[in-house]
Amino acid sequence: MAGKSVDMSKIKQVLQLSQNKVSNRQIARDLDINKETVGNYVRFFRSDTLPLKELLKMEDPELDSRFRAGNPAYTDARHQTFLDELPRFRESLRNKHVTRYLVWEEYIKEHPDGYRKSQFFHHLKQHLVASKPTTSLTDTYVGGEKLFVDFAGDTLEYVDLDTGEIIQVQVFVATLPYTDYGFALCVPSQRVEDFLYAIAKCLEFLGGVPKILVTDNLKSAVIKAERYEPTLNKALEDMGNHYHFVTIPCKPYSLTHKALVENHVKLVYRRVYAKLRNQTFYSLEELNEAVTQKMLEHNQTRMQQRPYSRQEQFFAAEKDALAPLPQEAYEMKFYCDLQVRNDGFVYLARDKHYYSVSYLHIGKRSRIIYTRTLVKIFINGEQVATHQRVIGFGRTYLNEHLASASKAILERSPEYYENRAARCSPLLKQLISDMFHDLEERALPPEFKYQTCDFMLSLQRKTPREDFERACGIAIENRAYTGKFLQNVIHNLAGAEQQKKSDTRKNPEPTNHENMRGSSHYQ
């Protein structure tokens, strides 16, 4: 009689048979109850102040309350173990994601001979849990019609191995209301990119597409929340067009519109958060593996009021109702308007990268649509260029887009300058080759010396061949790979030559000596 091991309706049958003068042994045999238990029930109710006939007229809850109230003492040894563990149960239940069922699972692993679930819940309720009646109105859903999505209010976390920093991550939760089939995924943030990535992974997990996506009014989905005509994020609209679903945000401040997904978030708290609370993860991938495993267990767990699991019901009743996934994977689209620069490029600041269009469009306004892999450029509604997307500083171009001057600049390379120098001077070619070799040894990019090469070629055009060759030889000998050094050497050589000519003009040697006085001058 310690717990709810026997239903009150069966106890009433015991009392009725006893009232009809049936022996305890026969009652035990007919109702498949232990003989001593039957005797305890009969003795207990016959000792009550009310006659047995009046007790049998009571409703089950009333009789149960009277029955439990008369049994304050527990002699079962398991009860003492329960009381010893009670402080630990209380501590565990302070975590809002931990349920009584999880506490019982952990208890029964440590005490295999302990209370079964019903008895455990009964004693736990007496000591800790207050009963709170709730009411709910069940909605009717059609298989394959809707998918509810939302972010959990609480985060999960992992530890960055490189820095030791604890990284908080958001948890995306989705459920199909017809079968209550659930999905959860950890993503870095609630930004649009992460939100759409999570939806795509969810649809991939389901293996199909519902007709309607029901979202909360988060910024990643809804730009302007209105009661009847909310403004959707364009990226989400693009995704819906790709997968062929429509998005219907729930009404603002209306929790009942998304009650099912809110309830599934609570289930995720209990069956994922609570069970992972004592584990440490060291990457987002490792965390998601654990979350996926716990969600699989959740979907495969038989529901309390149904003889099947969510997974069984999904594959039996809803999987075939989903539309097929498109053959091509979805890539999120980004939009921006940029002016074509004077060099025939547009600059995508997000990537810190330049992309070319035909030089005929210089100065025009362009519409840029780019995804994770492609950059498309439109001018006056016409697509004028398509490039592979590149992250990082640099230029992506097509030769046919470039004017001749731009092409000459962009085609520069060490080989380009070495070939030009070879046509001018063998020593200049050696100087430039040595200069690029020195850059390579210092792990510097060759672009670092392109302007120096242009400077040296300019000096070559302005300097007498003999002086330029001598200057190149001096620069090579001194491993001086700057245009300024070469210019100074040329200037010094020119100065020395000029000085030599000047000295020659200052000391002429006369030939006729007419300017000198002879002996006759003094006579």
Write up what this structure looks like.
With 523 residues, the chain is α+β, with helices and mostly antiparallel strands. It contains 19 helices and 15 strands. It starts with 7 loop residues before the first helix and ends in a 17-residue tail after the last helix. The N terminus is likely disordered.
Query: What structural class do helix, strand and pairing data support?
Result: alpha+beta
Strand residues, percent: 5-15%
Nearest-angstrom radius of gyration? 44 Å
How would you sum up the major sheet? 6 strands, mixed
List low-confidence stretches.
Answer: 1-5, 69-75, 129-138, 220-232
**Kindly, what is the distance between the CA atoms of the first and last residues, rounded to a whole number of angstroms?**
166 Å
Give the helix proportion (percent range).
Answer: 40-55%
- Average pLDDT rating: 78
Number of strands: 15
- Describe the global form: elongated
| Number of discrete helical segments | 19
Keywords:
alpha+beta, single chain, six-stranded mixed beta sheet, four-stranded antiparallel beta sheet, 19 helices, disordered N terminus, 523 residues
Briefly say what this structure is.
This protein is of the alpha+beta class. The protein has 19 helices and 15 strands. The longest helix is centred in the last third of the chain and has 24 residues, at 483-506.
SSE blueprint:
Layout: H1 8-19, H2 24-31, H3 35-46, H4 52-57, H5 60-69, H6 77-93, H7 100-110, H8 117-127, E1 146-151, E2 156-159, E3 166-176, E4 181-187, H9 192-206, E5 212-215, E6 222-224, E7 231-232, H10 234-243, E8 246-249, H11 259-273, H12 284-300, H13 310-318, E9 334-339, E10 345-348, E11 353-356, E12 365-370, E13 374-379, E14 382-388, E15 395-396, H14 404-410, H15 414-424, H16 426-441, H17 450-462, H18 465-478, H19 483-506
Parallel strand pairs: 1-5, 5-8, 11-15
Antiparallel strand pairs: 1-3, 2-3, 3-4, 6-7, 9-12, 10-11, 12-13, 13-14
Helix pairs in contact: 1-2, 1-3, 2-3, 11-12, 15-16, 15-17, 16-18, 18-19
